[in-house]
Structure formats: structure tokens, C-alpha cells
Amino acid sequence: MNNVTSIRNGHVRLDFDRTRNFGVRSLTSVKSGVNFLSGRTPRLWRICVKNKRHEFVTIDNNVSSSKSCGIERDSHGNPVSLHFSWRRIPIGEEPDALDVRVSVNVDDEMTRWRIDVENRSSEWGVWNIQFPILSGLIVEPGNAIAYPRKVGRLCRDILSNMPLKMVYPSYTSTMQYSLFLKKDECLYLAAHDPSASYKHFTYEKDGESELTYYLTNYPEGAGLPGTGYTMPYDAVITILAGDWITGSKFYRRWALRQYWCRKGPIWKRRDLSKWLRNITVWFSRAVSPLGEYREREHTPVNIQKIVDLAKYLDVPVGYHWYGWENKPYDTCYPEYFPPKPEFKPGVEELHKAGIYVMPYINARLWDIDTESWWQERAEAWCAKAPFKLVDGLRDYYLSAGWWRERIDLTKYMEHWRARFAVMCPYTEFWQEKVAMICDRLVGEHDVDGVYLDQISSWYPVLCFDPTHGHPVGGGHYWVDGYRRLIEKVYRRIRKRKYHAFLTSEDNAEPYMDLVGLLTWSPLMPDMIPMFQMVYSGWCVTFGRSFPSSDEATIILTVAQQLLWGTQLGWFDPDAISLRSPEAEYLKEAASAFKTAKKFVLFGEMLRPPLLKGDNPTLKIGGVETPAVLCSCWKAPDNTIGLVFTNIDTSPHEIVCQIDIRNYCSPNQRGAVLSRLYEPPKKRLAVYDSPQVVRTIKMEGRSIQVLEISTAPSVC
Fold first, then answer.
1. Between these two residues, 465 and 296, which has the higher pLDDT value?
2. SS3 (DSSP) at 157
């Protein structure tokens, strides 16, 4: 076909339409022959430019210009690289403002995409770049999108949930990939960006039954005259045979080579606080049993509730202390001192019981109605928005669901229970402010760690203040700034306590080597452990939200924590009573977590085996789930761990079959199956083949941990 330029590897074939300015016409699986695109409206890129008058113009690959295409071939004549160019693109009164170049390269596994925008304009600057664009993504019954919102979500009713906007890094996009799932294949769409630059991933409706996917970047100097953009990383597209687990493991191979994993897996890390690593169960008075914010009371009676629960559980316990400051919650940040009179005595009582204490602070916001805002001239160090962007940004945030977001003419503002300015983390002023607060908490009040709210959860903003020392607009300075802030805090607090630790809200990969991550999602349908499939064994996650007091909901949530390798709980002490069914299950889960630590904390989460037998489906808190659940892990010593739990009140007998060659060496011949207890273990069976089959009777509300060690060889 003369009208098509193609490139392929063993996984995917790409066709670019010459008659439609090199838009992506088809994206076809080499294995199945399935084309993921309709070819109805081929697109490739879209660029938004801005001038000094804050006017915006958008152009795309259909713009009038001089176009060309080049092909690089290997020694066998196969295309390995495509180069498209659009030269002398006019903007306004300037007939020769832009040149755009796109390269698409293939290797054995994936296609790698980059774009370069050369800007010669004296009036216009590149504001953002949408690239690559895949239009006409065909949606059929049974298709789904796996995307990294919080722990991970599976969007099944795709068309009813559009648009899907993910801002990286934030809780809406904790990692840089998503997966479009079609039958037994997945379309892998990722940014392999080692700098963790600010970006958006978007799916939106394109007609009645199609989608458009695109990646948006904001350049350094966004909107300034003459600003261009050279993409510093690969956008990656490929098709994989498998499901969301397959795609997650593909991303893991890239992710573990990035700087946020340089310190190694947590079982090897000496810099990681042993206190944070050892905590098994968390309590917090962050919310009431019904999930409503309230003023927290920390009377001796309430402190004793925490002590009694910790004694009952008999595992290391952490207490996340909200409301320690002598101000109403979500007001007056960062004016925390002096604390409430009961704070220091409460810390002392909890320490006597061996409980670790971690108070809350907000590490992102400043209340503009405080005296300190004016006395310290903090406005100079908050993040600034460009003047004419106000309405556009507000519209965007509203469409993305940020209904609280408001922006004035100079500073980014958020209205919660007070009026807050978003502080720029790149400034030494803000870094020093947060470090001083944490230093006082550890040094004067003897706490064991500090929770830095919002750092890993909330989305970056584009700061345009040139006095802050970073490039204005886009880039990776937001992440760089917070990393410097966290490292500065550590230098202060570890002079006070060597094992003092820091945590933050939600998952976000570029901070995971520095802080524990509070995964506080409530129980929801279609949650999947994407983050754990990628980063298990390399970071500490803890906590879930328990907004419901329903017994079954609490037990299922705790079960997910155990199975997904997340430190348990984050209970309000008022929400769980001693020797209640929930407390009894939590106690067993805590013991199992401690027993299985080499798996669920230090190991890699693997694909769980299929369970057969008596395993009915239950409906709990709007979630349909099998009664017996299982997760599978590989420990650093190469043993395989299977964690089973029956969340039903009735017993069930299931059959578990696992081929250890899928987890170890393909030449593995035998295995030893044992049950782990605290502290001994019991050998259950020896297999002289790689097929491990076991019938397991699970009593109601019970947990079992099995270990598979290989024999005679080692994985």
C-alpha cells in the first residue's frame, strides 16, 4: 500500500497514513491479527502554543506545511526507525514559526516514540504537546482499562467512565503506564520517563464506541516566546499476550532500573527505618467510624483503648496521630505549635506500651489567613499561575473532579476548611519550614515518625515564579523539590532518632524510596493491586480507609491488605472493639503478616493460582468477591509463598494447583510444600514433579500461609 508507511516487530505492526499526514491508521497485534484502531480519524500529535497576550492556538499533524518521511532499515531491509517531519509551520503572522519532527523506533519488544518541536517564533511559545495520539481505539464488550489510580483500578464499563484523566505523579496516576485490555491481549501505553516529569495521560470518547488516547507534556518555559520542546524520554507502545498482571510485570522490568529504586529492595536497605519496617498494624483517629472528620479527643481513656488493642494484637503497632496541634483540623497550616496539652503525655503513654507514634502535618499548603503568612512573607514562595490561565485551569480541574480547586490571579489556591496557598517545594524556604516542624516534633516531643500529607498524593501545578530557581512551567522540578525537602527533613530528624521515619499520602513511584505510602482507599469494586505487582518488595505501604462499620466490609478490607502486602489497619480505635469478630480476624491477619513477612513485605507479588472447588461468590460492600482468596509471592530466598484467607463465616474446601516452573526455573523437577506457623513450620507434602496440587480446607474467617521450596535444585 503506497499510502501507508509501516513498521513492526514480533508484537505489533504500526501503519501510518501518508494521505492523512502520517496519522496512526492501524495498530495491529502480530500474534492475533487484531487491529486495535478503526482508522477512521488517524492522528499523531497536537501542539498548543501561547503568546504574550495569553492567546492560545492549537495545531496538529494536519497543519499546512512541508512534510516528509524517512525510513531506516536493518541489514535485512526491515524498517527499524521512521522519521516524520513537518517544516515551516505558520503561526499567526509568522510563516516559518515551527518545525516538528517525530521518530518511531522498534526493538524486539516495543515501539519507542519521541517528538521534537523547534520554535523560531518571537511571539509564540509551546504551551503543551499531546503525543502520541491514538484515535479510533475500538471499544467492544468485555474490554477494560487497567490504570494506576491509587493502588490500581480496572475500568470495565469504559464508555460510561470517560473521560479518564490521569495526572502524574499523583494518586490519579501513581505510575506511568496504563493497559487497554482486549480478550487475551493488552495494549501497553506508557511513558518510560526516568526524570518523573509532570504529565497527563488521557482517555476520552471519540464517537459512539471509540476512544482517543494521548499523553500530554508541558515543556520548561511553557508559553514563553521561542519555547520549543524536545521529548527527553520514550513514549512506549506495544501489545502483550496476557492481562493486567502481564502488563504490570512488563513495566516493573523498566521501573526497577530507575533512581527511585537505586537503594535496592527493602530487605537489603540499611537506610530504611527498622521501626517503619516492623510495624504490622496501624491505628488512627483521622476519621470517625463513619468516615466523617471531627475534632479528635486524646483523653487518657482513648489512649488506653489504643494500648489495649495493641496488647491484644501482640504485634508492633503504629499510631497515626491527627489533631495533636492546638488548632481545628485543616486550618492554620503550618502553625502547629504549641500542641495540645495532652500530646506529649499521650506520646509517653503510647511509648510505654511499645507503640510507635507518627503525628500528621501538611507538607504542601499554607493558610493565607494566618499571621505567619504575612509575617514570614510566605506568598513569595507559593506556586504561581500565569494570569490568563485562570479560567482554563479551573475548567480543567473541574472536569477532572477537583471541585475544591480555585486559582486566583497570582497563586494557586485550594479551599478546604480554610483558604490555602500551594507552596512551591523547590524553594529552600518551604523545605526549611517543613524540616523545622519535623525537627521540633522529633526533638521536643519524641515522636518516632512524621506524616507529610499530600506530597505523594496531590498533583503538581505549573509554577511560573522565576525567583524560585527552577524553570518556569513544566519539567521535573516539582518532584526534585519534594525529594530535596524529604532528604532535608531526614538529615534533621535522624540526628535526633536514627530510625525516625517519614510517610506520605497515597502511592507515587518517585517518592517510594523516601517515604512509607498510606494507601488509604476504601473498599471499592474493581480495585486491583497494580502498584504492588510493580513495586512489591521495594517500598513500604500501609493502611486502608474503613468508612463503614460493617463487619464483613472491615474483614474483606483487612484481607486485601494482607494479601496485597500492605501493613494492616488504620483503624479508629472506636471502630473496633476487643474480641469482636473484626478484632479476632485482625489478630489472625496480624499474626499471618508477621509469619509471612519474607513474602508479603520483602517478596515480589506474583500471579495467584486459580482456585477450584467450593468457593462461592460473596457480595460485600458493593464488591463481588470469592469467599476464599489467595495471593502468591516469591521471597528473596526464592521460596514461593501462598497466602489464603476465607472471609466467609462458613468453611470451604478448595483445590489449589500451581506449576512451579512458572515461578522458578523451567527445569524445576520437584517441590516441598509446608505450612508456616508462628514460629515453627510443618511439612505437608513432597512432590517429585513441578505440579503442586493441594486440597485445602479453610475454616470460616481463617488464614493459612503455605511455603513451596524447590527440590532438588534451587530456583
1. 465
2. coil
Are the C-beta atoms of residues 23 and 42 closer than 8 Å to each other? Answer: yes
Q: Of all residues in the chain, what percent carry a pLDDT higher than 70? A: 94
Which one, of 194, 150, 152, 151, lies nearest residue 170 by Cα? 150
Angle between helices 343-352 and 428-445 (to 10 degrees): 60
Counting Cα atoms < 13 Å in the Cβ hemisphere of 538 gives 27
The residue extents of the domains of the chain are 4-255, 273-361+430-458+475-595, 597-711
- Say how far apart CA 245 and CA 236 lie, in whole Å: 18
User: What pLDDT score does 395 carry?
Assistant: 46
CA distances (Å), origin 551, targets 556, 585, 649:
9, 10, 11
Contact yes or no for 381/429 (Cβ under 8 A): yes
Over the stretch 204-241, which tens digit does the pLDDT of each residue have?
999 889 999 999 999 999 999 999 999 999 999 999 99
pLDDT band at residue 398 under the 50/70/90 scheme: very low
Mean of pLDDT values over 421-425: 97
In the chain, the amino acid numbered 503 is T
Read off the pLDDT of residues 474-516 as tens digits, 9 standing for 90 and up. 999 999 999 999 999 999 999 999 999 999 999 999 999 999 9
Nearest 5°: CA angle at 600, between 595 and 602? 100
Cβ pair 42, 25 in contact under 8 A: yes
> Which residue in 2, 225, 279 sits closest to 97, CA to CA?
225
Question: What is the pLDDT confidence band of residue 402, given thresholds at 50, 70 and 90?
Answer: very low
Residue 714 pLDDT more than 80?
A: no
DSSP string across 60-75: ETTSSSEEEEEEEE-T
Pairing of strands 317-321, 281-284: parallel
Taking the C-alpha atoms of residue 548 and residue 621, their distance in angstroms, rounded to an integer, is: 9
CA distance 274 to 278: 6
Taking the C-alpha atoms of residue 313 and residue 280, their distance in angstroms, rounded to an integer, is: 10
**Rounded Cα–Cα distance for residues 528 and 534 (Å):** 12
Residues comprising the chain, all counted? 715
- Please tell me the predicted confidence (pLDDT) of residue 295: 55
* CA nearest neighbour of 486 among 500, 471, 476: 500
The one-letter code for the residue type at 488 is: K
Which residue is listed with cell 507515587? Answer: 508
Assigned fold of 4-255: Beta-galactosidase; Chain A, domain 5 (2.70.98)
The angle at the Cα of 106, spanning 100 to 112, to the nearest 5 degrees, equals: 50
Q: What CATH architecture does domain 273-361+430-458+475-595 belong to?
A: Alpha-Beta Barrel (3.20)
Q: How far apart are CA 296 and CA 625, in angstroms?
A: 34
Q: Is the pTM of this model over 0.70?
A: yes
Which three cell numbers, joined as nine digits, stand for 506? 497515597
DSSP 38: -
The pLDDT mean for the chain works out to: 92
The answer to whether 552 touches 537, Cβ cutoff 8 Å, is no
Contacts of 191 (CB under 8 A, 6+ apart): 168, 176, 177, 199, 201, 215, 233, 234, 235, 236
- pLDDT tens, position by position, 57-72: 999 999 999 999 999 9
Architecture of the domain made up of 597-711: Sandwich (2.60)
CA dihedral sign of residues 446, 281, 272, 679: positive
Longest dimension (CA), the chain: 81
Would strands 516-518 and 501-505 be described as parallel, antiparallel, or unpaired? parallel
